[in-house]
Structures are given as structure tokens and as C-alpha cells.
Amino acid sequence: MKERVTKLKLYASVLVKKIVFAWQTETAYAGNTVGELLSTVFYNITFLVFIDVILKKFKLIAGYSFPDMMVLTLISQTVFYAGLTFTYTSVELFIKSVRDGSFDTLLLKPVSVLFQVMTLGIRPFSGAFFSIPPLLIYIFLVIQQNAFHPSMFGLIAGIGGLIMGILFLHFFRFAFAMLVFKNKQIKNLLKTLEFLSEGGSYPYEAYKGIVKIAVLFLSPLLAGAGIPSLYFLDKTASLIPLAIEAGLLILFSTATFCLWKQGLKAYESTSS
Amino acid sequence: MKSPYIQGLKQGFAEISVYSVDFLLGLIQSAAVVGFEIILWTFVLPSDSHSALLERTSYFLIATGIALIIGGARYRFGRELILAIKEGTLSFHLLKPIIPLLYIYSEHLGGQATDLFTGAIFIFVGALWVPGFSWLTLSLFLLMLITAFINTSALNIMCGSVAFWTTEATGIRNVFNQVTRLLSGQQIPLNIFLEILPKFWSQFFCILPFASVAYTPTMLIMAKSTTDIDYRFIISSLIWAIILPITANLIWKRGLRRYEGTGN
């Protein structure tokens, strides 16, 4: 028991140090942080204008009105900013470390290597700094449009779907990032997946046939935001979408751990 | 002796040709952008308006194709400039008897083979559904393609020059990118966007240079007759093709003085 507490303390202190380091890095490049904030605000403004224009002209996007779209966007932006805080930079730094060899230094530390990899680039401060202004805009719009009034079932299933969505996005990115052990030129593949994530901005039920299945595997934002939104907006009473999301989460988290084990083994054998 | 710019062009192309998978992924990226725009329009247009959907598909293919060819998609040349300033590689170019901006551009252009190839395919496929164009619209289209190239290059230089003042300029580049995407008609046809807005804003956005990046040439190629041509966009593009290069040149020179002054 004492050993476990000591280990837990060690992990907690590593995490605290990473958070302090993140703060130092982010404040050192204040100009860029402000630039990125401007970028995220502009993105959301242009997206809002875009949605507003389309809905003024065509009234509905796949059965979603403006208030519905605001709920969907709020959820998709929440998933995105969670990814920005915990996942995107960690994935980027992990790939860089394998490519330039600095990954070796992680192997020498007395903490789980996977834990180190998954917390390499956590950005709690900039994550909060970037997400608060746009999320507040969407919360304001959702309240103003009186768009959020789910049933108890919808609320619970929606929250469950949202949490699973954030985790799915995390493991989805890491599962593909693990391929760096086999192929060093992985960055462009991840960039391509980012482009395919664009589909997450639109309602899930709008997709038809094979595309409906394909986008689930290609766009974690779609599963992470589209499925919880179905429940928050009381558009379904079925648990099937939630089960699909859980299945995707299990699939990608298993893939991440398997590829990690294989990759690490191969890396250690070639570097020794 | 070979021109250094041709060498730069070849070097840029050699870098991307090494990774053939990246070439394919670049194509998928551009196809994903257009694909989701088209999917969105299938959501909003009623199922019976097949011709309207075909027209929209054609529009997005041509608009994205033009933006890819002239470098108006994602400010990639601007990004090259930011990197050259941030990482100091600009200093090497300044020491050589070349025009640094032109050399960086030629190297960048060589690396844009995927975009040029994808852009050409998009325009070709998009144009297949266009009913046909007159000599007037075709001539104006070619003229607007040139002004689009001039304006886009100038916007890229202005965007990249920001790095002279703040080296971490990625965020600013994203702002340029998002504003251009919306106001150039790559995200939504500008005529639909402007007809919803109040008159003041509609006219204001009309005279901004962004429309020249994609909407103006696309409008010309899509025009069923000369009455469909909105000459405000053409005049605005021509005026910006004079103003923007001068402004971009001034900003670049000023930034360069600052760069050299600090001893980089």
C-alpha cells in the first residue's frame, strides 16, 4: 500500500511539473498565444456567420434548425478544445520525439513511458484561454435561443456520449500516431485525418449509406459531438448510437495499446 | 548556367517527389475540403433540386481548384515566409545574389505540385457541368486569374511579413486563412452570402480583395450569359491588383530592414 502511495505521489509530482512547464512555455510565447486566440475566435465567428447565412436561406441543415446547430457546435467545440488541451500537442511531440531520437530520454525515466507520452504536451492554460471565449459565445447563443432542454434520459446519455467522445478523439489520434514506430513520415497522414474531421461540424443523421459508417471511423469529432447531440436534443431514444460510440472507443483504445506495445518493443530492439 | 529560381523550383519538387504517399495524402486533403462542402449542400438543398446541386458541386470544384492553383488555399507561401524568417534561413538567401522573395517562391512552387495537379483536375471536372462560355467571359476569366494570382501572392507576402514583428505568427496566418476562406467564396458562394447581409456590409465585402482569390474567376466561368457577370467584383479585383503588390512590397521591405537591423 505504501509503495502504491509513493508511486502515486511520483506520478502526481511529474504531472505538476509538466503543468508548470506548460505554463512557462505558453507565457514565453505570449505573442503566439494571442495570435492563436485571435485565430480560434475568428474561426468561430466565420463558422457562425456561415451557419447563419445558410440557415437564413435554407431554414434547415439536415433537419437541424439554428438553435439545434448551436447545441451541436457547442458540443463539437467542447470535444475539440478537450483535444487541444490534452491530445493534439502530445501527439505532435510524441511523433517528433520518435523521429529525432529524443524518445530515448523518456525510456530512462522511472515513470511509465506511456504516461509520459500521453502527457507530453498537455496545455491546460492555453486550452482554457482559447476555449473560454468561443464556448461562452455558444453557451450564450444556446441560452438565448432556448435550445437546450433535454429529458433526463437525454441529459445522462448525452453526458456519457460526450465523455466517451473526448476519450475516443484522444485514442483515435494516438492510435494513428503509434504508426510512427513503423513509418517516420506520419505527420501528413494525421493532417489528412484532421481534414476529414471537418465532417464533425454537421449533424450525424444527415449522412447516408456507406458514408454514414465511413465518417464514424474517419472523423472522431463526428462521433464525439454528433452522437451526444442526438441525446441532448432528444432526437433519439435508442441506445444504439451510444453503443456504437462505446464500440469505437474500445476499438481505438485497444488498437492504441497494442500498437504501443509492438512499437515500443521494436524501438527498444533497434536502439539497443 | 541555370537560373537559381529554376533550381529552387526543381529542389522544391524533388522534396515532395521523394514521398509519393504525401502526394496522395495532399490530394485526399483537398478532396475532403470540397467533399464536405458538397455534402453540406446535399443537406440543405431539397432532394428534387438535382440541377442546383450539380451547379453547387461545379462551383465548389472550380473555386477550390482556382484557389489551389494560385496559392489562395491555406496561405502556404505565407507559411514558408514565416518559417524562413523564424528559423533564420532567410539570412542565407540575403547573402546570395538573388531576389530572396522570388527564390523562396520558386522553391515553394516546386513543392506545390500536388496542389497544382489537384486544382487542375477540380477545374476540369467542375467545368464539365458548366453549360459553355463566351469569348468575353473566357477572356475576363483569364484576366481575373492573373489578378487573382497577383492579389493572392501579395496577401501571402503580407501574411508572411508579420513574422518580422512576431516570429510565432502561425495564429495570425490562421486568421488570414479563415477570413479568406469565407470572404473569397471558397466556403459559400459569395452571391448567396452577400444577398443575406445588410446592404452596407454586402457592399463593403464586395470591395474587399478576398473575392478576387476565388469567387470572381469562378463567377465568370459559371456565368450562363453576360448578364450574370457582376462587374463590381472585376473592377475591385483590378484595383486591388495595383494596391496590394505595392503595399506588400512596402511591408516586406520595412520588415527586412528590421530583420537586418537586429542582426539576424
Automatic annotation (TrEMBL), chain A:
Annotated keywords: Membrane, Transmembrane, Transmembrane helix
The organism's place on the tree of life at top rank: Bacteria
Cited InterPro entries: ABC-2_transporter-like
Classification via Pfam families: ABC2_membrane_6
Keyword Transmembrane: yes
Transmembrane segments: 37-55, 67-86, 129-147, 153-181, 213-233, 239-260
UniProt xrefs under PANTHER family: INTEGRAL MEMBRANE TRANSPORT PROTEIN, SLR0610 PROTEIN-RELATED
Protein's name in the database: ABC transporter permease
Species per Swiss-Prot/TrEMBL record: Candidatus Dojkabacteria bacterium CG_4_10_14_0_2_um_filter_Dojkabacteria_WS6_41_15
TrEMBL record, chain B:
A Pfam family this chain is assigned to: ABC2_membrane_6
Annotated organism of origin: Candidatus Dojkabacteria bacterium CG_4_10_14_0_2_um_filter_Dojkabacteria_WS6_41_15
Origin organism lineage: Bacteria, Candidatus Dojkabacteria
Source organism superkingdom: Bacteria
rRNA processing as UniProt keyword: no
Membrane-spanning ranges: 21-45, 57-77, 117-136, 143-165, 200-221, 233-252
Protein known as: ABC transporter permease
Keywords: Membrane, Transmembrane, Transmembrane helix
Alphabetized PANTHER family for the sequence: SLR1174 PROTEIN, SLR1174 PROTEIN-RELATED
